[in-house]
Design a protein that fits this description.
The chain is an alpha/beta fold. It contains 22 helices and 28 strands. The structure holds zinc ion.
């Protein structure tokens, strides 16, 4: 690392160089200079081919209580700075601002000057429009973990940048979940040097623990042998097991995109809250979630990051939910490249640009297969929206209510935009729309990480200062006592979690709405086998719910049920096929997972027929040798 120093001008006042997890941190006493001459860092990155960040020397950092008034005074009022988070482990202040663009160099603002004044690095983010408890939890966990994190980053860096033991590469992928099924996504990638876990989810509909959690027991791996966990996105079937890893002794890094961290914090905390309420077994508690936050390293799309001596990682847009990523692993100086899609949408939606397909090289593609059957073809978008509008108009005209069970993250925000658009244009009957609190909070996180949204939304929120998610039609329900307003007489639309009627506030509404034939239960997302949502959709006339007293309550289902396809954040059949065809140079093989057995068989067959490449479909507890 010493050679880095030789090319840096003395004015930069570099005092030391240290590992900070997968990055190399240059400590400076003159952050202003390095910020204003940022070509210096770019040149170092190009020459060492590693991630490099600048950090301020601790001795120049003003204490928080002195730095705050300076920020208050120097930040222009128009920027609307509302909150500062001082992260001592890395010496960085996050400024939440209503107009973050005003503090960018594009707008002519000299952030280096501000850094020089307080002696801290500065990061600016859009302020969420309503307070997010998940973002506060994240800050709290980071703050209380300061000492631990400093030590962790150092040790992790030494492990990542250690010399290799061997030259030859052997690569095996073990299927620990989501093999010929949907739920508990988890793959173990083993190379000669490393063991990396891709996702660690739970199965929402599973009835016993053998089927609910990843089969790490079968993989014959100790948790302390795992070098890294890489998370594709913040859905429970991909990350619901992560805190349990920490509870059982894992203390290595978890890599994911920036918005994935607060989103998973929100959903995991909600998951244990619901489990407590329903008297179910809770796998982990808030302490384990804090542990996870303290070990999470967030990355932006497109940056190459070393995660072990022989694996480089790049996360790219997957178009599925906020911060969702495809995972590109470059193993052993060009020996093999894996792309794991996670859940992805190869097509544009209101919320996101289409999934990235342009990878420098891919030998093995691991694709999800939620919609892998021939009949899984989504209608064109306008048709989908009209089906949705008609489905609601009919019920509202009879004075009924429409209940939309929906996951808090992803489809909810898409539906919010669609409802608002069509009501505004009077195509959809105007009616009050009630959103359960967690949906509103998840939406606020979308606003705060707007640079991860589609180009149009990004520009609306960040450049024009318009918040497309707030509207006069919407009421957020923050407390159970406020639910009466939504349930009382009169037409309304209600959106509540969870999306498959497996627990959550949606069940309180379901109990009131399902018995009347004037009402409608409208599904807009995938319903996994074994869930109440699937049973209701398949025509079940009764549902058993757990009452407050712990007794089973039988609810008659007389309301009509309907599913509108096409809002999904997953690629449909055609999109999966087209995505695979885009890969250049030609793939060596495809591994198909995350789908019903029949769909996986179909997709694997079609891939072999069309592209003449082997398509494997491992069950859980099967291993595939890649090289
Ligand atoms: Zn997902």
């Amino acid at each position: 690392m010493g050679s880095i120093l030789t090319n840096i001008p003395a004015e930069a006042q570099i005092t030391r160089i240290e590992y900070e997890g997968p990055r190399i941190a240059l400590y400076t006493k003159n952050p202003k200079y390095l910020q204003q001459n940022n070509y210096i860092i770019s040149e170092i990155v190009n020459s060492v081919k590693k991630r490099v960040v600048t950090r301020t020397e601790k001795s120049i950092r003003k204490p928080e209580h002195d730095a705050k008034p300076i920020l208050d005074k120097l930040i222009p009022v128009e920027a609307g700075a509302s909150n500062y988070f001082f992260d001592e482990a890395i010496g960085e202040v996050t400024i939440e601002a209503n107009n973050p663009r005003l503090l960018s160099s594009d707008a002519g603002y000299d952030i280096g000057e501000l850094m020089g004044q307080i002696g801290w690095k500065i990061k600016v983010r859009k302020a969420p429009h309503i307070a997010s408890s998940a973002i506060q939890t994240m800050y709290y966990a980071l703050r209380t973990g300061t000492d631990e994190r400093e030590r962790f980053y150092k040790e992790l860096g030494e492990a990542i940048f250690r010399p290799r033991y061997t030259v030859a590469e052997q690569i095996t992928v073990k299927s620990l979940g989501a093999g010929q099924e949907v739920g508990r996504s988890c793959l173990l990638v083993e190379t000669s040097e490393s063991k990396v876990l891709l996702d660690a989810g739970i199965s929402p509909g599973a009835r016993n623990s053998w089927d609910a959690y990843p089969r790490l027991d079968w993989a014959d791996v100790q948790l302390n042998e795992i070098d890294a966990v890489i998370l594709s996105h913040a859905h429970l079937d991909h990350m619901g097991f992560l805190p349990a890893l920490f509870k059982f002794g894992y203390d290595g890094p978890v890599y994911c995109t920036e918005p994935t961290l607060p989103l998973m914090t929100l959903l995991q905390n909600d998951f244990i809250k619901i489990a407590h309420l329903e008297g179910g077994r809770v796998l982990y508690d808030q302490k384990d979630i804090r542990d996870l936050i303290q070990h999470t390293i967030t990355l932006q799309y497109g940056t190459v990051t070393d995660v072990s001596p022989d694996i480089k990682l790049v996360l790219n847009n997957a178009g599925h939910i906020l911060g969702s990523a495809t995972v590109h692993l470059h193993i052993g100086e060009g020996v093999h490249n894996i792309v794991y899609t996670g859940d992805y949408k190869y097509g544009r939606t209101q919320l996101f640009d289409s999934a990235s397909w342009n990878y420098p090289r891919v030998e093995t593609l691991i694709t999800e297969c939620t919609y892998g059957a021939k009949e899984d073809i989504m209608p064109p978008r306008e048709e989908v929206e009209m089906n949705f509008v008609n489905a609601i108009n009919g019920t509202l005209a009879q004075g009924g209510k429409v209940l939309i069970p929906i996951p808090a993250v992803g489809r909810a925000q898409e539906i919010i935009l669609v409802l608002d658009h069509y009501m505004r244009n009077k195509v959809l009957t105007e009616a009050p729309v009630f959103l359960e609190g967690m949906i509103s909070e998840a939406t606020a996180i979308h606003v705060s990480y707007a640079e991860y949204l589609s180009r149009e939304l990004r520009s609306k929120i960040l450049d024009q200062g318009i918040n497309p998610f707030v509207s006069e039609y919407f009421t957020s329900i923050e407390h159970p006592s406020a639910r009466d307003e939504a349930i009382k007489e009169g037409p309304a639309v209600i959106m509540a979690t969870s999306g498959m009627l497996e627990g959550g506030p949606v069940l309180q509404y379901f109990e009131h709405i399902a018995p009347s034939d004037r009402n409608k239960i409208l599904f807009v997302s995938y319903q996994v086998q074994g869930t109440l949502g699937r049973r209701v959709l398949d025509g079940s006339k009764q549902a058993s719910l757990l009452g407050d007293n712990g007794k089973i309550k039988i609810v008659d289902v007389n309301a009509s049920t309907q599913k509108v396809d096409g809002f999904s954040g997953h690629s449909d059949y055609n999109q999966i096929i087209r995505f695979i065809g885009k890969m250049r140079p030609k793939l060596q093989q495809v591994i198909v997972n995350h789908g019903d057995k029949r769909k996986i068989e179909n997709l694997a067959y079609v891939i072999q027929r069309i592209y003449r490449i082997p398509a494997l479909r491992p069950a859980v507890q099967e291993a595939i040798r890649l090289c």
